[in-house]
Design a protein that fits this description.
The protein has 146 residues and is an all-alpha fold. It is built from four helices and no strands. The protein has a domain of 101 residues.
Length: 146
Amino acid sequence: MEKRYVYGNTARKLNDPRSREEMPLHVQKRAIANRRAHRMSFGYLLFLSLAVLATGIILTWYITLQADITASVKQVSTLEAQLNTMKQDNDEAYNKAVSSLDLEEIKRIAIGEYGMTYATEGQIITYSDGGGNDYVRQLAPIPDGN
């Protein structure tokens, strides 16, 4: 086999087809084996494709959840603002209604026109529920105090 020397700083004719044909058989087989080793098998390619697909699906799901959470937070903020406005309007209406009541006029009409009187000592019955409930459930008629 003839040895070729390259003089200078550049290699000439790197892709010379004649040089491939002149390669020994074991070098050609090793080159073919190296090319095969660098190829991806169908199973590995399928695995990578499924992994990329699963990652894409999970990321899409995650971004959708983030968008839903953001929309929910905005909706809650809007509803809280609406609630505060309604509370303020309700308080203003209550204060207006309370300030427009004349208790002395109500007392005069109740006593003068309807004949109502204040309760006497024997007419007042106190009740203790003991349970701390905010309401009383009447299970029997109230006694008349005699």
